[in-house]
Amino acid sequence: MFKHTSRLFLFIAFFASFQESGAQTADKAQVQQYQKQYPKAKAVILKSEIIYRVKFNKKKKLPYVIEDSKETYLALKRGGLSRYVFYDEHSEIKKGKRVGKDAVITKRTKVVCGNYNADGIFYSDAQVCQYPFRFIKEGDTQSLNLMKYYHDPRYFTQVFFTDQLPVIEKKIVFEVPQWMTVDFKAYNFKGFDIQQKKITQSNGSTHYIFTAKRLSPIETYDDVPGQTYTYPHLLILFKDFKKNNQTTTLLGSVDDLYLWYRAVADKVENHPEKLKSIVNDLLKGVDNPEQKVKAIFYWVQDNIRYIAFEDGIAAFKPEDAQKVYAKKYGDCKGMANLMKSMLKVAGFDARLTWIGTNHLVYDYSTPSIAVANHMICTLLLNGKKYYLDATEKYIPFGKYAERIQGRPILIENGEKYWLEKIPVAQKEANQVLKTHFFEIQGESLVGQGKHTYRGEQQKEILYYLNFSSQKKTSELVQLLVDNNNKNCHLDSLRFSNPNQRGGSFTIDYQIKLDNKAASFDNDIYVDLDFYKEFKGFKAEKDRLSNLNLREKVYRQSKVVLQIPAGYQVKHLPKNLNITNPSFSIQVSFTTTKNSQIIYNKTIATTNPVIQKADFVAWNEAIDALGKMYNDQVILTKLKK
């Protein structure tokens, strides 16, 4: 939510056949050049020109922004291309025209606009227009001319240079009149061919011109941080404007930002009396204050469906608490407001809190609504602050999801505000421990095992078990253990209560692993590690973005193998001890006096993200880990 989406979103689809003629055809050599340079791309943006003009609405006494753009697409492959443009209650598309020589617009390629829909629920403040194009052959070119209005400059926050398509050339111009004060904050320009200049016009206005060339498409990996960490873009800060010798502040400081947050939030019309019945029912027979909070917090987690719209611009006004309660679904703002309202009905001090998740690079040193893409509730209890995020299903009270840990927050406090940071958990809080005790029976390893999950993995597993309708809970738990591997056979499967948030989630079982021991002459070759975490998990050398693991990793494995009578150890894989400021891998094989081999493995990361600067070291470590995985324990018969 709240993120500026003036850039066009891309969806590529193919059509079986075409009869109509396409648009102009580019030079064949040029097409071949781009095909070689961007082998996966279906098309490129040959040229993009965008002008943002700041105007003044005399009736509303507020500046507004006109976006006037033209993009030309060059087909590298025969097929279809759709461009998606988002708008909302603070913006509108005035004109959208597809242009191309002899281009035929049929019902099949009709522009469709309407509410953005997810899981059958419409978002009142998120709408989209789809502009489909059809290219009959390689080299066809067509264009999209677009005019879009932003009615409030505070909602016009970001402009990105990159796109899901490769960009050959892009020119962005901001025409700023003399009466407007605006700053541009550049992010991630280093390493990109972006030129900028500033020209003062005779009428006193200023033109800020940015020209970019040869921009690779946005990467589609699943393990990437938010785009603000990687791709070149501008954060646009409209500070104030002067009309009739009077200066009007927009967002010149964090103080201004908070006043605006509060003014919008104050428009909410909560009716706490409509929540008294449910609050009284939840707290019946509960005397301990913390238990009362848990009862409310967990009820909202369990009963209010979270509807997320992460990358759109949404109003900052939370929905009325009683409406969220009645509908049983809401976005983060509505859920935070409901949480606050229910806690206040119960007699607690609860505050709305604005936060930017780790999806964003920004913090509150910058006065922009782009800083916050999320809202939670802060509880003051016994002299301590607790941060309640009911969108995180199955997070225990007093614990915080990785995506908000360490993030700056702005807490409402009357006319003023508090700036705080969410506490950061150590990597050990995300422990995943897998323990096995095996003996060899023929070609199988037979014994017992136990999995223990804490932190992020525990939270995700509880959500997975409670919200999946495809399989029974026991079948889902079995999948966590056997990975749907036909060589893994489980019995006596026991696991923790999937509705219990505290402590850890554990799974105990009897296990038989087939094809893990192979006999040749006098030797037995044994593969001790069934899971082989992070095997082959290398970072692509040419990727632009860091490697996002989404949690501070702390994975541990312990395997105890009973050496069969009449056998001794002939070979053990080499131990590993790889230490880096960002990660570590420790693996050891030891033997005991009780004729056992003990295998211990710990893989840990300091942070959820592996930086590009550490890719070489990370890939070398993963190679070493893979080499260890491919090695086997060898047992040999004792000589008589």
Summarize the structure.
The protein has 640 residues and is α+β, with helices and mostly antiparallel strands. The protein folds into three domains: 9-248, Immunoglobulin-like; 254-421, C8orf32 fold (Roll), CATH 3.10.620.30; 427-637, Jelly Rolls (Sandwich).
Q: How does this structure look, described?
A:
With 640 residues, the protein is an alpha+beta fold. It folds into three domains: 9-248, Sandwich (Immunoglobulin-like), CATH 2.60.40; 254-421, C8orf32 fold; 427-637, Jelly Rolls (Sandwich), CATH 2.60.120.1130. It is built from nine helices and 37 strands. Strands 2, 3, 4, 6, 9, 11, 13 and 14 form an eight-stranded mixed β-sheet that branches. The chain has an eight-stranded mixed β-sheet with strand order 26-27-25-24-31-35-34-33. Strand 7 and strand 8 form a beta hairpin. Helix 4 runs antiparallel to helix 6. The longest helix is centred in the last third of the chain and has 16 residues, at 615-630. The radius of gyration is 29 Å and the shape is globular. Mean pLDDT is 92; it is low at 1-23 and 118-124.
What secondary-structure arrangement, pairings included, does this model have?
Blueprint: E1 9-13, E2 24-25, H1 28-37, E3 43-57, E4 62-75, E5 79-87, E6 91-99, E7 112-118, E8 121-135, E9 140-150, E10 158-160, E11 167-176, E12 180-187, E13 193-200, E14 206-215, E15 233-243, E16 246-249, H2 254-265, H3 276-283, H4 289-303, E17 305-306, H5 321-327, E18 329-330, H6 332-345, E19 349-355, E20 374-381, E21 384-388, E22 408-413, E23 416-421, E24 431-441, E25 444-453, H7 455-467, H8 473-482, E26 488-495, E27 505-513, E28 517-520, E29 523-526, E30 547-548, E31 554-562, E32 567-571, E33 576-579, E34 583-591, E35 596-605, E36 609-610, H9 615-630, E37 633-637
Parallel strand pairs: 3-11, 17-18, 24-31
Antiparallel strand pairs: 1-5, 2-9, 3-4, 4-9, 5-8, 6-9, 7-8, 10-15, 11-14, 12-15, 13-14, 15-16, 19-20, 19-22, 20-21, 22-23, 24-25, 25-27, 26-27, 28-29, 29-37, 30-36, 31-35, 32-37, 33-34, 34-35
Helix pairs in contact: 4-6, 5-6
